[in-house]
Each structure stands twice: as structure tokens, then as C-alpha cells.
Amino acid sequence: MLKILFATTNPGKIRELQEVFSGMSVEILSIKDFNNHLPHKFEAIESGKTFIDNAEIKSKTYGEKLNILTVADDSGLEVKALDGRPGVFSKRYGNSDEERNRRLLNELQEVPKSNRTARFVCALSLYDPNNRKCHTVEGIMQGKISYSIQGAQGFGYDPIFINETGKTNAEISLQKKNQISHRGKAFRKLKIYIQKNYKI
Ligand code: ITT
User: Fold this and answer.
1) Is residue 178 a contact partner of residue 187, using CB atoms and an 8 Å limit?
2) What ranges do the domains of the chain cover?
3) Is the pLDDT of residue 35 over 90?
4) By CB distance 3.0 to 4.6 Å, which of 5, 55, 122, 124 could disulfide with 183?
5) Where does this protein hold substrate (predicted)?
6) What is the CATH number of domain 2-198?
7) 61 labeled part of a ligand binding site
8) What number is the average pLDDT over the span 4-14?
């Protein structure tokens, strides 16, 4: 069975990957499985200007250190009325999901429905320590920012992001989110690449 490390600290991302990869002969490992092999407080420094840069920094940092095939995700929300912010700073836009969502809703308080367009972007990078190369793919989900927090499923900005179903990402099931989401689209591209190149 092919072993792949998913180098993320975000449990929401892990749940979504497990759903897409279920039924494949792949064993998904997490950073916790390598706690004894990593220095205390080991982390990748997300210094890139794009989601792709940061996904590659994360996959290389862990894949090199642990010498294992490694997937990393860098993702975030781009709001048109805010010139694409928070973008790569999505995680650094506040100290908790709640704070980040409230900040965005406040910033868009006066913005009419017609101008609340936003998109989620997900860059997924697979690093192979045998050839020291990254294969990186992207997925995008278009939608609008709501006027209030709605729904309790998902994670992060999901409760304020209205998707093509007219509901927020936090009001739909994990399976439905994967069908239409930025991450689901990127995972499926990567899945095809893995099936082809690692003969599973
Ligand atoms: P890593 O350990 O994988 O880096 P992270 O949560 O720090 O996990 P990022 O640096 O990629 O991840 O930051 C992504 C930010 O965008 C973070 O605030 C997430 O909550 C948010 N985000 C990403 N994908 C999302 C999704 O599908 N739904 C809602 N919010 C999402």
C-alpha cells in the first residue's frame, strides 16, 4: 500500500482528503504519526506570495525532513470587493475562525449583494523525495459572502460562503462540499496523477 503523509495541522482538511481518497489503496499518514521524528515545534514557514508557493514550501519541508511522499494544501478566500484579500493571509486574518469571519462580515457590511463575489482557492502539492520534485494542482470554488454566519458544518470561512447551491458551505454535507469545492477539485486532479504515476 502506498503511504502518503498529509502535512497539515487542520483537521477539516484531513476529513475532506479521507473522503476523496477512501477506497484507494493509499495509507494517509498525519504529522502526528511522525511526532517522534520531528524536532519540537517543527513547522514550514509560509513565506510565499501565492497559494502554490506556500503549498510547495509545506510539502517540501516535510517530505525532505521525513523522506516520505508528502501532500500539502495551501488555501484561502479571495474577496473581490477587498481586492482579493484575505488571500494567502486567510489564516492570519484573525486569531480564530469566529474572529476571521466577523472581521470579513464587518468589512463587507455596506457592500451590496451584487458585489459580494468571492472565491476559495486550493493549491495541493505532492512532493516526492526520490526525485525531489513537486507536482502541484489547483482548484477554485466561486461564490458570495453572506450577511451573517450560517451553518455549523465544515470549518474556517465555510459559514459565510454561499456556494452554487444557494446555501453556505457550513450548511451542506462533507460529501456535497467535496463535489463542488476548491479542495475536492484539486484532490481529484491529484488522485488521477497519483493513480497514473504510482501505479495504484
Ligand atoms: P495547514 O496546517 O494545512 O497550513 P491551515 O489551516 O493553517 O492548515 P492555510 O495556511 O492553508 O491552512 O490557511 C487556510 C485558511 O483558509 C484557514 O483560515 C482556513 O480556515 C481557510 N480555508 C481554507 N480552505 C477552506 C475551506 O474549504 N473552507 C473554509 N475555510 C477554508
Assistant:
1) yes
2) 2-198
3) no
4) 122
5) 8-13, 75, 155-158, 177, 182-183
6) 3.90.950.10
7) no
8) 95
